[in-house]
Amino acid sequence: VYMSEVSGEARQFMEETIKTDYILPSKGEANSVTILWDTIMTSMACCGVNSYLDFVVDGSAEVPPSCCISTPLNMSTSSIQSPCPDPATDLLPQMTQGCYPLLVQGSVPAIAASLAVVVIFQVAGVMLACCLARKVEDTREWYEMTSM
Predict the structure, then answer these.
(1) Which of 115, 91, 3 is nearest to 82 (CA)?
(2) What is the value of pTM for the model shown?
(3) What is d(CA 97, CA 49) in angstroms, rounded to the nearest whole number?
(4) Which among 32, 44, 61, 102 is placed 20 to 30 Å from 110, CA to CA?
């Protein structure tokens, strides 16, 4: 029911972190938000929340180097450095691919599995509670107070 609202809020939050907290290499030293985004963009071969346009500020089209690095699937520890092309003339595939759709797509199976585990434990708890209630009902005379 609230999926679209949560999805919109998550996208907005991610866009805000890029606009306010991400530091491009030409602007200064990387902070923890920058390192996190660089790791996400490198490992998932994506750029920004929607595309490289998330980093366009006041006409400056500087693209983070992590948008131009691709990590091959068979070599997870090494990265292939591609020079970042000028966005006005040439774009790499990962520069146009936003990270948000990839993150949502990857998280749905994990959320579904977590919900399935919770449901299984809840059903097991209800079944055990019913068994316990029946057992108490069968041996009720042991638990009733008698007058002396």
Answers:
(1) 91
(2) 0.61
(3) 9
(4) 32
Distance separating alpha carbons of residues 108 and 122, to the nearest angstrom: 21
> Count of CB atoms within 10 A of residue 35's CB?
12
Q: Are the CB atoms for 19 and 11 separated by under 8 Å?
A: no
Give the Cα separation of 22 and 87 in Å (integer). Answer: 19
- Interaxial angle between packed helices 32-44 and 3-21, expressed in degrees from 0 to 180 and rounded to the nearest 10: 120
Enumerate the β-bridge partners of residue 70: 80
pLDDT tens digits along 99-140:
888 888 777 777 778 888 999 999 999 999 999 988 877 666
Cα(127)–Cα(120) distance, integer angstroms: 11
Q: Which amino acid is at 105?
A: Q
d(CA 76, CA 58): 36
For residue 59, give the amino acid letter: G
CA-based radius of gyration for the chain: 26
